[in-house]
Amino acid sequence: MVSREAAFLYNNLVLVGIAFSVLWGTLFPIISEAVRGNKITVGPPFFNTVNIPLGLLLLLLTGIGPLIAWRRASVANLKRQFLVPTAMAVTTGASFFAFGVHDLAALLSYTFGALVMATIVQEFSKGVSARHRMYGESRLVALPRLVARNRRRYGGYIVHAGVVVVFAAFAGLAFKREFDLTFNAGDTKVVTDAWGHRWTFLSQGISRYNVLNREVTAIALDVTRDGKPAGVITSEKRQHVDSRGAPTFEPSTEVGILGSFRQDVYVVLAGVRGGDAAEIRVTFNPLVRWVWLGGALMAIGGLVVMWPAADRQRVQAGYAAVLKPRPVGELVGA
Amino acid sequence: MLGAQAVQTFNGPMADANDVYRPVTLPAKANATASMTDLERDDLEHQLHCQCGCNLDVYTCRTTDFACSVSPAMHADVMGLVSGGHTAQEILAAFKAVYGEKVLMAPGKSGFNLVGYTMPFVALGAGAVLVNVLLRRWRSRAPLPVALVSQVDATDSELAALDAAVRRDN
After folding, report:
1. Is residue B169 very low, low, confident or very high in pLDDT (cuts 50, 70, 90)?
2. What are the pLDDT digits (tens) for B27-57?
3. In this structure, are A34 and A161 located in the same domain?
4. Are β-strands A188-192 and A277-286 bridged in parallel, bridged antiparallel, or unpaired?
């Protein structure tokens, strides 16, 4: 029962389980009302409770699957295959714990992510080494040829790498920091992010103006990180109006964003108190860009998998037969 | 009249707070001091569903959308209960008593709600059992492995070509 085929099946089962849990959570308020007669809310805490364990299980299986041999794995094979990835996973988990990551979901996410990444590197490394031995290719030449020779397998590994990056980004929420600050014009506020950097926000004051079909209330903040200028962040509240100047729709918020691969700093103008005091919410969202990076990796892996194999088409063409035409008389007389 | 301090400056066509807001109060405990830090209070407000129809929790709504007058009012109630010395569980229970269970961002883990929390795992477990049974059945039907041949009638170059072809096809 321990085989790569079985791992694939269980992997797909978990994916279906995650889809089912979303459907179930969406329908549960209706079911609950039908059964008990009272309304309930099923919000993010419910989905986090249910889907985080399933997601972690999926990530773990993503790492385990490629390490198991096709058909049936032997104990010796399992030991040999699992040794390095397991060591990497344990080391990563212990390191993150030592550096203060005590959120269980984040810790498991990085541990399993390390397992998957080590698996991928091991698989690529073995393939490249095999080509290096068999054909005498340099490793730089062997790598693209390895991928080209078996696009489905190695493209799949690239997709797995994308999944790891996305999970790492999601786990970054454990380092999210939020601050509610009140600024009068010229006020300076200092806050510290999860990485220990000191961020200073200096208010340039509130401005109000009309543009086209909206009334805008905006605030600009001069930002420094550890004393070095990081830029100016502007956040706006926009109230769209109709031709008579009456408000239409709800007011919308333009979030000011200062982004980097480490974290995005969001500044939201929540409101204005007493004419001049701006209520600001500053959020440090770690690893947001990694979500995009992971998505791009998955797309690239998908392209590699789907790219047509020219070699196979040529081999199939070799089976084509040319029929020799028979004399007309033979056909008629047959 | 709402208990919250008026901080609304953006007057969109929001639902009237008086239609949905209901005061949540409890008598303050004797010699009461604040029962939690601001951070813990914010966490608590993440568990309360704003009743303005925005589908956000009270904390997120009041700090990102000042067009809403419901979340500041609910926040003011939370502040009053915290300064009255009430614990997080007591505050959640007080809100639940006034608004019903819908005021919680996720249903409590008791009674029928446990079906909601456990069903995905039960379904996954049932699926795993089914897959296991199917795998065993398929394996028992699989043909016996072909006996290995110790010697084949082929030259080394033919075997190498075959090996290369198999690897290409793998």
Report:
1. low
2. 998 888 888 988 899 999 999 999 988 889 9
3. yes
4. unpaired
Are residues B98 and B27 part of one domain? yes
Task: Evaluate whether A51 touches A18 at the Cβ level (below 8 Å).
Answer: yes
- Which DSSP letter does residue A244 get? T
The three-state secondary structure class of A237 is strand
Q: How many domains does chain B have?
A: 2
For residues A256 and A282, the answer to whether their CB atoms sit within 8 Å is no
- A206 and A282 part of one domain: yes
Judged by CB atoms closer than 8 Å, whether chains meet at A239 and B12 is answered as yes
Tokens of B106: 């996720």
Tell whether B38 and B76 lie within a shared domain. Answer: yes
Q: For residue A99, what is the DSSP state?
A: T
Per the structure, the complete domain to which residue B154 belongs is given by: 113-169
Residue whose token pair is 């956040």: A235
Q: CB contact, 8 Å: A313 with chain B? A: no
Comparing A192 with A271, the larger pLDDT belongs to A192
Q: How far apart are alpha carbons B122 and A194 in whole angstroms? A: 37
Residue from B43, B46, B63, B95 whose CB has the most chain A CBs within 10 Å, to mutate:
B63
A129: pLDDT strictly greater than 90? yes
Q: Tell whether A237 lies on the interface with B, counting CB pairs under 8 A.
A: yes
Weakest-pLDDT range from A9-13, A106-110, B91-95: A9-13
Is there a domain that residue B3 lies in? no
Model confidence pLDDT, tens digit, residues A163-176: 999 999 999 988 89
Amino acid (1-letter code) at residue B92:
L
Report yes or no on B12 lying in a domain. Answer: no
Sort out which chain B residues have CB atoms less than 8 A from A182's CB and list them. none
Chain B CB contacts of A249 under 8 Å are 12-13
- Chain A: closest CA distance from residue B151 (Å): 23
Q: Is residue A306 part of a domain?
A: no
pLDDT at A96: 94
Across the interface, do A32 and B113 touch by the CB < 8 Å criterion?
A: yes
Structural domain boundaries enclosing A212: 176-287
Q: Where are the beta strands (DSSP E) in chain A?
A: 177-183, 188-192, 198-211, 214-225, 228-240, 252-254, 256-259, 263-273, 277-286
**Residue to substitute from B115, B124, B163, interface A, most A β-carbons within 10 A:** B124
Per-residue pLDDT of B72-91, as tens digits, reads: 899 999 999 999 999 999 99
On whether residue B8 sits in a domain, the answer given is: no
Q: What is the structure's pLDDT at A328?
A: 61
- Greatest distance between any 2 Cα atoms in chain A: 106
Q: Is residue B127 part of a domain?
A: yes
Interface test with B, best of A35, A214, A250, A313 (most B CBs within 10 A): A250
